[in-house]
Amino acid sequence: MDEDVLIPMLVAWIIFALLVAWVADKRGRSFNGWLDVGLLLSPLLALILVAVLGQSTEGSAFHSCPFCAERIKSAATVCRFCGRDLPQPQPLPPPPLVR
Length: 99
Fold this sequence. Notes:
The chain is mainly α. The chain has a domain at 3-54. Helices cover 45% and strands 6% of the residues. It is built from three helices and two strands, in the order αααββ. It has a two-stranded antiparallel sheet with strand order 1-2. α1 packs antiparallel against α2, α1 (3-26) packs parallel to α3 and α2 (31-40) packs across α3. The longest helix has 24 residues, at 3-26.
């Protein structure tokens, strides 16, 4: 393959793999893990897999700080970026009994 074609193809491969990793991260999945999948297999195949797998059920491990919008652990009580105390989630009331 000609070098004039190879380098743009490699750059495009890396850019598309980064795009797949970003989409996976927005769906609650590992950015680095999906970047590896996109680089090693194929960005197109990885994107199809991310789309089929959908939203992660483990998405509660991290959430955004309501004050500075940085990504922090869900168990945090103080934001490590802005230093503000985080509101504690209120438990849901029990469902009404049906008689």
